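Interim report, section 4.2 (structural modelling).
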Amino acid sequence: MDKVNVRTGDVVIWLLLLAAPYWLPLSGGYVELGSRVLILALAAMALNFLLGYTGVLSFGHAAYFGLGAYGTAIVMKYYVESTPLAIAFGVVLGTVAAAIIGPFIARLRGVYFAMCTIAFGQVFYFIAFQWRDFTGGDDGLSAWHRAPINFGFATLDILNNNISFYYFALAFFAAAVAIMAFLLRSPFGRTLLAIRENERRARFLGIPVDRHIWMSWVISCAFVSLAGALYALLNDFVDPRALRWDQSGNFVIMAVLGGMRNFWGPLIGAAIFIVLQDYISSHTENWMSFVGLIFMLVVLFFPRGVLGLVKRRATS
Amino acid sequence: MGTLLFFNVFNGLIIGAFYAMMALGLSLILNLSGVINFAHGGFLAIGAYIAYMLIPYIGFWGALIVAPVLTAILGLAVERSLIRRLYGRDPLYSLLLTFGLSFIIEDGTRFIWGAQGLQYQVPIWLQSPLSNELFFLTGYRVFMVGMVGVMVLALFLILNYTRLGLRIRAGTLDLETVSVLGVNVRILRNLNFGLGIYMAGLAGVLAAGMLGLQPTIGDSLIMPSFISIIIGGLGSLPGTLLGGLLIGVASGITTVYLPQASEAVMYVMMAAVLLVRPRGLFGEEGRF
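Predicted structure of the assembly:
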């Protein structure tokens, strides 16, 4: 593929995202659905930084997503009603937790890495579940809401105006995506690719592989916790399901469904998965079976994802 | 205090025995096929529900024998039709497949048998306490520990003294060579998967007699099973067994002194093991 082609794709995606609040209602969607796709796509893209570009299989990202969400909700509910501060605290909480867990798992590989990330992720689930007085236990944290943002000269009413919130989330999404794209093009990102392609060779070249995996893990978790913070604001609510392992599975399937080897893959995957989930859960009580079926069909028939399929068509 | 401690240690041993039984099945499948079977908890639930259906006709003892076999047959079918396709591919895919499968099983059992808890009758003579002082030692609990012991013993006999067991152990070390030596690896993996699921089914029948029966019965057991494997070390079945018993007893003891932390202590142990010995207590060096 030549460069011009890739650029066109980027431009089309950004235009679609920018105009989403206007074309979504026309196509039977609603603005909140757009915000949800955007936020979960950010989580899936952040996961893919680790999964697709470093080649490390994490199944515990929901923990850091949930920590971002809980951090945000806790600041809003108990301390100050300031959206930026709440987001900052959520991101710091998730990132610090990931940085601490990192050294335990950075030496592990493959299924072993996956198992340990799941198990460590559950720690935070249990904390959220058991610490009733502070986290609300099973019921979660409700009875708080996001606060409008005051710039001094103007106020962005993200509380009452869905469209404002969408653009608020899009700004964070754009910044995060830009940083990730920049990192992947930097020597650091190339090193991660080298580790993915051939770890032994990377080691022979003197690259400190474990430290790179730790760094990639922390970066990935930082952006996932940003997504979690935005998710809490979107719902004005957070509960332990946000950090359970099935949520981690959802992120992984979004990345795989869209195509892990493509930068935009997880966005496409998130859009398809969330729209399907939204449709199924409003039509049947047995939505779990259908979601499970989606997992199995993707694995058996679209292991390269939608974009992988398109790309193969284009090249052959 | 002494009795309380004894009670909780014993309780921890029972729970640990369950963790171990589930983890041994998971470990068998993981070691030979490199598949983390997320649906293991689902198969456990299926075993329990099959037993629930059979008990009115063939009684508890009949169900104890038949239900795990039926579960294992289902496991063989699942392996043949779905999981087999993913061997040799990125472990990500088998993880996602069994993940989806666990959703379907949980939803399916809820659809068929309902979400509310069900009870089934264990023989009356097993329900009564052994003595007045040790009121918590019901026959059923002692029986369960015994059953798990027998099961583990049988597993180790199978692995050490039968041709199938020999091949499973050899395949764990080097599947390619086993295949070259003329063993049908497809059948071997299939049987091995069935053996793992058999253990899940048996654990299900036993657990439901104590915990009651609901579609999510396996959920509370799957994470501790992972931890058992991690602590014991990948590739080592004795390690898995020890890991399960260890975290069971540890969380039992913690219940006495700090009940809120009974769950957390397992994760602390896992973290400690990973820090000091990343391959687990009995894991082989460089396996993962």
